[in-house]
Amino acid sequence: MFTLDGKTAIITGASSGIGHAMAELFAKQGAQLVLNARRADLLDDMVANIRDAGGMAVSVPGNITDEAISKQLVEATLDHFGKLDIAVNNAGMVGGIGFDP
Ligand SMILES: NC(=O)c1ccc[n+]([C@@H]2O[C@H](COP(=O)([O-])OP(=O)(O)OC[C@H]3O[C@@H](n4cnc5c(N)ncnc54)[C@H](OP(=O)(O)O)[C@@H]3O)[C@@H](O)[C@H]2O)c1
What we know:
Rossmann fold, binds NADP nicotinamide-adenine-dinucleotide phosphate, globular
Protein backbone atom coordinates (compact mmCIF):
# COMPACT_ATOMS: atom_id res chain seq x y z
CA MET A 1 0.00 0.00 0.00
CA PHE A 2 1.20 3.55 -0.77
CA THR A 3 2.36 5.22 2.42
CA LEU A 4 4.33 8.32 3.37
CA ASP A 5 4.53 7.46 7.08
CA GLY A 6 7.49 9.24 8.64
CA LYS A 7 8.27 11.28 5.54
CA THR A 8 8.58 15.05 5.66
CA ALA A 9 7.51 17.07 2.63
CA ILE A 10 7.54 20.69 1.54
CA ILE A 11 4.74 21.57 -0.90
CA THR A 12 4.77 25.00 -2.52
CA GLY A 13 1.58 26.35 -4.07
CA ALA A 14 -0.45 24.42 -1.51
CA SER A 15 -3.34 26.87 -1.14
CA SER A 16 -5.27 25.68 -4.21
CA GLY A 17 -5.36 23.35 -7.19
CA ILE A 18 -2.83 20.57 -7.59
CA GLY A 19 -0.78 21.62 -4.55
CA HIS A 20 -3.84 21.63 -2.30
CA ALA A 21 -4.85 18.18 -3.54
CA MET A 22 -1.32 16.84 -3.03
CA ALA A 23 -1.21 18.24 0.51
CA GLU A 24 -4.48 16.48 1.38
CA LEU A 25 -3.23 13.20 -0.14
CA PHE A 26 0.22 13.40 1.48
CA ALA A 27 -1.32 14.15 4.89
CA LYS A 28 -3.75 11.25 4.50
CA GLN A 29 -0.82 8.95 3.69
CA GLY A 30 1.04 9.99 6.84
CA ALA A 31 3.48 12.68 5.72
CA GLN A 32 4.51 15.62 7.89
CA LEU A 33 3.97 18.76 5.83
CA VAL A 34 5.39 22.24 5.43
CA LEU A 35 3.03 24.22 3.23
CA ASN A 36 3.74 27.38 1.25
CA ALA A 37 1.68 29.83 -0.82
CA ARG A 38 0.97 33.55 -0.59
CA ARG A 39 -2.57 33.26 0.84
CA ALA A 40 -1.79 32.67 4.51
CA ASP A 41 -5.46 32.35 5.52
CA LEU A 42 -5.99 29.38 3.20
CA LEU A 43 -2.82 27.70 4.48
CA ASP A 44 -3.94 28.24 8.08
CA ASP A 45 -7.24 26.50 7.31
CA MET A 46 -5.39 23.58 5.73
CA VAL A 47 -3.01 23.23 8.67
CA ALA A 48 -5.98 23.25 11.08
CA ASN A 49 -7.83 20.62 9.06
CA ILE A 50 -4.77 18.36 8.82
CA ARG A 51 -4.11 18.64 12.56
CA ASP A 52 -7.80 18.01 13.38
CA ALA A 53 -7.50 14.79 11.38
CA GLY A 54 -4.46 13.74 13.43
CA GLY A 55 -1.76 14.83 10.99
CA MET A 56 1.16 17.20 11.33
CA ALA A 57 1.57 20.37 9.28
CA VAL A 58 2.93 23.90 9.51
CA SER A 59 2.72 26.79 7.09
CA VAL A 60 5.33 29.21 5.81
CA PRO A 61 3.34 31.77 3.81
CA GLY A 62 5.00 34.06 1.29
CA ASN A 63 6.14 34.55 -2.27
CA ILE A 64 8.42 31.66 -3.21
CA THR A 65 10.29 33.88 -5.69
CA ASP A 66 11.67 35.65 -2.59
CA GLU A 67 14.86 33.76 -1.67
CA ALA A 68 14.29 34.54 2.02
CA ILE A 69 10.99 32.62 1.90
CA SER A 70 12.61 29.56 0.34
CA LYS A 71 15.26 29.61 3.09
CA GLN A 72 12.53 29.96 5.74
CA LEU A 73 10.78 26.93 4.25
CA VAL A 74 13.82 24.71 4.67
CA GLU A 75 14.64 26.12 8.11
CA ALA A 76 11.05 25.60 9.34
CA THR A 77 11.12 22.04 8.01
CA LEU A 78 14.29 21.19 9.89
CA ASP A 79 13.16 23.03 13.05
CA HIS A 80 9.79 21.25 13.22
CA PHE A 81 10.57 17.83 11.79
CA GLY A 82 14.37 17.46 11.76
CA LYS A 83 14.67 16.37 8.14
CA LEU A 84 13.45 16.90 4.58
CA ASP A 85 12.52 13.91 2.41
CA ILE A 86 10.35 15.36 -0.37
CA ALA A 87 10.21 18.81 -2.00
CA VAL A 88 7.24 19.48 -4.32
CA ASN A 89 8.10 22.60 -6.33
CA ASN A 90 4.54 23.15 -7.52
CA ALA A 91 3.89 26.90 -7.03
CA GLY A 92 3.19 28.70 -10.24
CA MET A 93 0.63 29.68 -12.78
CA VAL A 94 0.10 29.42 -16.50
CA GLY A 95 2.55 31.85 -18.08
CA GLY A 96 5.14 31.49 -15.32
CA ILE A 97 5.49 31.97 -11.59
CA GLY A 98 4.27 35.32 -10.38
CA PHE A 99 3.44 36.31 -13.96
CA ASP A 100 1.46 39.55 -14.05
CA PRO A 101 0.33 40.43 -17.60
N1 LIG B 1 -3.53 22.75 -14.11
C1 LIG B 1 -2.89 22.38 -15.22
O1 LIG B 1 -3.47 21.91 -16.20
C2 LIG B 1 -1.38 22.53 -15.31
C3 LIG B 1 -0.71 22.09 -16.45
C4 LIG B 1 0.68 22.21 -16.53
C5 LIG B 1 1.38 22.75 -15.47
N2 LIG B 1 0.71 23.16 -14.36
C6 LIG B 1 1.49 23.72 -13.26
O2 LIG B 1 1.14 23.06 -12.05
C7 LIG B 1 1.24 23.99 -10.99
C8 LIG B 1 -0.08 24.06 -10.21
O3 LIG B 1 -1.13 24.39 -11.10
P1 LIG B 1 -2.62 24.55 -10.61
O4 LIG B 1 -3.50 24.30 -11.80
O5 LIG B 1 -2.85 23.73 -9.38
O6 LIG B 1 -2.67 26.11 -10.30
P2 LIG B 1 -3.47 26.96 -9.22
O7 LIG B 1 -4.73 26.30 -8.80
O8 LIG B 1 -3.53 28.37 -9.75
O9 LIG B 1 -2.49 26.93 -7.97
C9 LIG B 1 -1.26 27.60 -8.02
C10 LIG B 1 -0.71 27.60 -6.61
O10 LIG B 1 0.55 28.26 -6.63
C11 LIG B 1 0.55 29.28 -5.64
N3 LIG B 1 1.44 30.32 -6.09
C12 LIG B 1 1.42 31.02 -7.28
N4 LIG B 1 2.43 31.89 -7.35
C13 LIG B 1 3.10 31.78 -6.17
C14 LIG B 1 4.23 32.42 -5.62
N5 LIG B 1 4.89 33.38 -6.31
N6 LIG B 1 4.66 32.06 -4.39
C15 LIG B 1 4.01 31.09 -3.69
N7 LIG B 1 2.93 30.44 -4.16
C16 LIG B 1 2.48 30.78 -5.37
C17 LIG B 1 -0.92 29.70 -5.49
O11 LIG B 1 -1.22 30.17 -4.21
P3 LIG B 1 -1.28 31.72 -3.77
O12 LIG B 1 -2.07 32.45 -4.82
O13 LIG B 1 -1.96 31.63 -2.44
O14 LIG B 1 0.14 32.16 -3.68
C18 LIG B 1 -1.60 28.34 -5.63
O15 LIG B 1 -1.61 27.65 -4.41
C19 LIG B 1 1.64 25.34 -11.59
O16 LIG B 1 3.03 25.51 -11.46
C20 LIG B 1 1.21 25.20 -13.03
O17 LIG B 1 2.00 26.03 -13.90
C21 LIG B 1 -0.64 23.07 -14.25
